[in-house]
Each structure stands twice: as structure tokens, then as C-alpha cells.
Design brief:
178 residues; 9 strands
């Protein structure tokens, strides 16, 4: 990060200062502050525009995902979640194990211990209503699933709901990495 490119230099400095502040005083709220989130979003947007990442842009409403591609090329990818719902949402991405032929929607019906034997979680991005977040990862060829495992009724990431997971409402999908 040193030296940071000029267009994001101030954001990098802000992010690093807040991270150091939170680490030194033990205040975890520093890591979720609006200033840190804004700097992080600005850096993410710069990386998406200039670094040549493949991109997956998923929009979440309270009952559906939109924008999941059928196929994407392998390599470094920025997965962006735009939450247009009234509740907090997530995209948890998993790589479905080679040899597993069932659709991801069928795998979601399995008990959690059996589900974990069919796919490996790679990462997730969670955002409050009206927010956008990005996750960067490297995808190898294969089948992938995405789903929202946050509980229905989660009005924010800090106020989890008690309902069933959102994937039961349709917030799930599958794509292939070639």
C-alpha cells in the first residue's frame, strides 16, 4: 500500500490510520466506522476499475438475487453485492466439489453437516440495506454456488433476525468458472 496510487492515496491513509487506531486501543467499532467503510469502498471501486479483475455484480432484494452470471473466466474476481432490500444481505460463495452433480439448490436442502461435505466456503460479503460491498478472490475452474445465510428479519448486520435463512426465499444461485 506504500506508496498508494494518487487517486486512492487519501483513502489508503485513512484506512490504515483507522486500522492502527482500532488495533492500538482495542475498539472494534473503529473497524466498522463509516469513515473506514467509505475508504474501503473507494479502494474497492478503484481496484475494480483499474486492476483488470473479472467482475460479478449481484443485486439483492429481500427475495431474490439478480446478476449471477452463467459462466465467468477463472482468475482474480471482484464479487460486488448491491443490497436493494430492506434487510441485511450476504453473498456466501462456495466451490462445489468435483464429482458432485446435484444442483446447488438441492445441496442447500441437505443438513449442514452433509452440505459441508459437498462444497467448500471461499468467502462472503455482507451489507446493510442500501449498501454495496466487494469481495476479491481467485476462482479456479469448476462449479460455484452463492447463497444468503443471514436470517430473515435482519434489519442490519448489527441487528440479526430470527427467521429462516434468506436462501429459502430464493437468494441463491449457481455459476460455472471456465
Amino acid at each position: 500500500m506504500q506508496p498508494a496510487p494518487e487517486p486512492i492515496k487519501a483513502d489508503v491513509e485513512k484506512l490504515l490510520a483507522l486500522a492502527h487506531q482500532g488495533a492500538s486501543n482495542g475498539d472494534s467499532a473503529t473497524f466498522t466506522s463509516e469513515d473506514l467503510q467509505t475508504a474501503d469502498r473507494n479502494i474497492d471501486q478503484y481496484m475494480l476499475r483499474t486492476c483488470g479483475y473479472g467482475q460479478i455484480s449481484i443485486t439483492a432484494t429481500d427475495d431474490a438475487y439478480q446478476g449471477i452470471p452463467a459462466t465467468i473466466g477463472s482468475g482474480a474476481v471482484g464479487l460486488t453485492l448491491n443490497n436493494r432490500g430492506r434487510e441485511a444481505h450476504q453473498v456466501l460463495i462456495v466451490r462445489i466439489d468435483d464429482g458432485v452433480t446435484e444442483p446447488f439448490s438441492t445441496l442447500l436442502d441437505l443438513p449442514p453437516d452433509q452440505r459441508m461435505q459437498t462444497a467448500a466456503a471461499l468467502g462472503s460479503v455482507e451489507v446493510d440495506p442500501g449498501q454495496v460491498g466487494t469481495l476479491f478472490l481467485r476462482l479456479a475452474p469448476g462449479r460455484y454456488g452463492v447463497g444468503d445465510f443471514l436470517s430473515q428479519g435482519s434489519t442490519s448486520l448489527d441487528a440479526p433476525g430470527s427467521g429462516d435463512p434468506h436462501y429459502l426465499l430464493g437468494l441463491h444461485g449457481e455459476f460455472t468458472v471456465a
